[in-house]
Write a structure and sequence with these properties.
The chain has 169 residues and is α/β, with parallel strands linked by helices. Helix content is 36%, strand content 15%. The relative contact order is 0.26.
């Protein structure tokens, strides 16, 4: 079993501007850095064996702040990347059409959930018996929880920036 603390990265410039980041690197705001620092203080006394992050900068930066009090490095993986929004990437979120059909270059929910399942398998095979902090993104974190709990994506509450949820995998 893996004890997973699933975290969403700190606030980014694109979060503030309501831009669809998708798999772009992203940059933490001063507030996002402060959010991560506050969470790092809360987690400083926790026993954590490994810190894992999406390989996108906004998650790696958040995870590095969380790992620093523990003197640990960050393991980065593309499995934790945010949903690939294809041609919606970089658009102002309120301007994105909600009607189907969406462009074919957007990662489907089935593909996203399959990647979430591969991430869970990655943790179980590599870190069995460990306590893991994993910093991802809003939609992939939702997919991980949906897969783990056997729920539809819409039934998993949205995570706020620098929020942490505990799962036993």
């Amino acid at each position: 079993m893996v004890k997973l603390y699933l975290v969403r990265h700190g606030e980014t410039v694109d979060n503030v501007n309501r831009i669809m980041q998708g798999q772009t690197q992203g940059e933490l705001t001063a507030n996002g850095i402060a959010q991560a620092q506050e969470l790092a203080q809360r987690m400083a006394a926790w026993r954590v064996d490994v810190f894992v992050a999406s390989d996108l900068k906004r998650s790696v930066d958040t995870c590095a702040i969380l790992a620093a009090p523990h003197g640990q490095e960050v393991v980065a993986t593309a499995l934790l990347r945010e949903r690939d929004w294809g041609s919606f990437t970089g658009l102002h979120i309120p301007d994105i059409p909600l009607d189907d059909p969406w462009p074919d270059d957007i990662e489907t929910l089935a593909e996203l959930k399959a990647r979430a399942a591969r991430f869970i398998d990655f943790l179980r095979s590599r870190y069995d018996g460990a306590t893991v902090v994993a910093v991802g993104h809003g939609i992939i974190n939702k997919a991980i929880q949906a897969v783990h709990f056997g729920k539809a994506m819409r039934d998993v509450p949205r995570m706020t920036n620098a929020e942490v949820r505990e799962l036993l995998l």
